[in-house]
Amino acid sequence: MTNDIILSGKVTIAGTIKAETGLHIGGAETGLEIGGVDNVVIRDPLTNQPYIPGSSLKGAMRSLLEKANGLAIDNERVWVKEPDISIHMCGKDDCAVCNIFGRTNGEKKKVTGDKINIETTTPTRLIVRDARLTNADELEKAKTDMPYTEVKTEVVIDRITSAATPRQIERVPAGAEFEFKMIYSIYNKNDIDILKSVFEAMSLLEDDYLGGSGSRGHGQIGFENITVDWKPRDYYQTGDKDKIKSLIKKETLEQIINKFEDIKKEIKINEKASSES
Fold first, then answer.
1. The total number of structural domains that make up the chain
2. pLDDT in tens, the chain (277 residues)
3. Are 170 and 104 in contact (CB under 8 A)?
4. CA-to-CA distance for 182 and 201, rounded, in angstroms?
5. What does 15-80 look like in DSSP terms, one character per residue?
6. Is 113 a member of any domain?
7. 95 occurs within a structural domain
8. Closest Cα partner for 169 from 20, 3, 23, 4?
9. What DSSP element (H or E) covers 100?
10. Over the Cα atoms of the chain, what is R_g?
11. Which helix (H) or strand (E) holds 108?
């Protein structure tokens, strides 16, 4: 069973992700000749440039939003792949996490061992594209250890023997910039309110970290020059760019969240889509 889904339009969120500290998002080490680096970054196989996978960005946002809404506890999480992966999932129509990231129906097993039966499926509202490096030329000119990246040596101390074991971590240096884009689908009025949670998740991420070794200083990022556009369904039917409405031009997350009530008023949806099914 599923609620009727009628698309009213899409909100596009685009801008720049800037690495404030070194950024490490791991890639496959198989077959790489990299001279002893223990942890490599993920790279585009065609350009050899590092990038930020959309899945990493989306996963970090989901995790932080779950924690912020008190949904990271065992009783609120179900197994996706037991015993390794669990996420929040519930049957509430107004749940921001379920609406943004999607929900499937059927019987689920909670981390606590209890069962929950979810009657309705809802599609994922948020699509997150891979973020591509935009200042590659600048990084090429820098004297980095490897193409576009640096190697940071850390020492792991055995707490029992006090033996020191060095390890090398490849990371994108501070100052690297990536172009990001997210697309958020609007089906009903509730989706407009929930859109604010997307910006809140982005803001939480700025004060957290992206990628690995965040507690050791890696992964601090900032979202800059954010542009938000509303593309109604009419735009996709006609291709008329005049139907696209600019909601935000090159602003910060703080500015967007502060004026969100004004942004909401600019998103017009058809009455049929906004009615409860």
1. 1
2. 445 689 999 999 999 999 999 999 986 554 444 455 568 899 999 999 999 999 999 999 999 999 999 999 999 999 998 888 999 999 999 999 999 999 999 999 999 999 999 998 999 999 999 999 999 999 988 878 888 998 887 766 767 776 776 778 899 999 999 999 999 999 999 999 999 999 999 999 999 999 988 888 889 999 999 999 999 999 999 999 999 999 999 999 999 999 999 999 999 887 654 554 4
3. no
4. 13
5. EEEEESS-B--B---TT---TT-SBPBPB-TTT--BEE-HHHHHHHHHHHHHHHTT--SGGGEEEE
6. yes
7. yes
8. 23
9. helix 96-101
10. 21
11. strand 106-109
29, part of any domain: yes
- Residue 90's nearest CA partner among 102, 98, 101, 81 is 98
Task: Give the other-Cβ count within 10 Å of 235's Cβ.
Answer: 18
Tell whether 142 is covered by a domain.
no
Nearest alpha carbon to residue 88 among 197, 13, 220: 197
Residue 127 DSSP code:
E
Residue 88 Cα distances to 111, 192, 201, 211, angstroms? 10, 21, 15, 21
CB 65 within 8 A of CB 201: yes
Q: The domain containing residue 228 runs over which residues?
A: 9-135+174-274
Task: State how far the Cα of 39 lies from the Cα of 30, in Å rounded to an integer.
Answer: 11
Residue 5, both tokens: 């889904």
For the beta carbon of residue 230, count every other beta carbon within 10 angstroms.
22
Q: Which pTM value belongs to this model?
A: 0.89
**How many C-alpha atoms does 95 have within 13 Å on its Cβ side?**
23
